[in-house]
Write a structure and sequence with these properties.
mainly alpha; Ferritin; about 70% helix; single chain; about 170 residues
Length: about 170
């Protein structure tokens, strides 16, 4: 797990009429910013696979990895906007994401479709697992809406994982 960078500001709440208690909002914003860092890292990992995949299934994987990246970008946007809705700040720069992401580094020396499928599947599964843990944490805080957002993300990432893993499951 990467440590928080020195440049990551503390959670500061902006004026809002949102009726969730301050301690709930602060806790949820922390969860959201952690998932945002992971989502942005995963988004760029999918783009890395998209740009560099080679092999006989190139076009299918190239297009699939682009679809994965686009959906991850939408999830990151939803996560960031929820942090702001709660009166917080979304910390979504590349440097913050790199310093806070809990995902392992994507291998930069791979090119084959199978290698990218394996690496991206692993990253998607890890992110989905952390999204499910965030559901529980948000529920414990008492923020059902943030838990619902993480449920949507979890469900969507599971579907992306299914699509990517399907390329490694054929018996031909």
């Amino acid at each position: 797990m990467a440590s928080t960078t020195a440049n990551t500001p503390k959670t500061r709440l902006w004026q809002t009429q949102n009726d969730l208690p301050e301690e709930v909002r602060v806790g949820a914003i922390g969860l959201l910013n952690q998932q945002l860092a992971d989502a942005l890292d995963l988004d760029l990992q999918a783009k890395q696979a998209h740009w560099n995949v080679k092999g006989p299934n190139f076009i299918a994987l190239h297009e699939l990895f682009d679809e994965v990246e686009e959906e991850l970008e939408e999830f990151a946007d939803d996560i960031a906007e929820r942090a702001v809705v709660l009166g917080g700040t979304a910390f979504g720069t590349v440097r913050v994401a790199a310093g806070k992401s809990r995902l392992p580094e994507y291998p930069l020396d791979i090119i084959s479709g199978h290698e990218h499928v394996t690496a991206l599947s692993s990253a998607l599964a890890r992110f989905a697992r952390s999204a499910r843990a965030a559901i529980e944490s948000a529920n414990t805080l008492g923020d059902a809406d943030t838990a619902d957002l993480f449920t949507e993300v979890s469900r969507g990432v599971d579907k992306l994982l299914w699509k990517v893993e399907a390329h490694a499951q054929a018996n031909d």
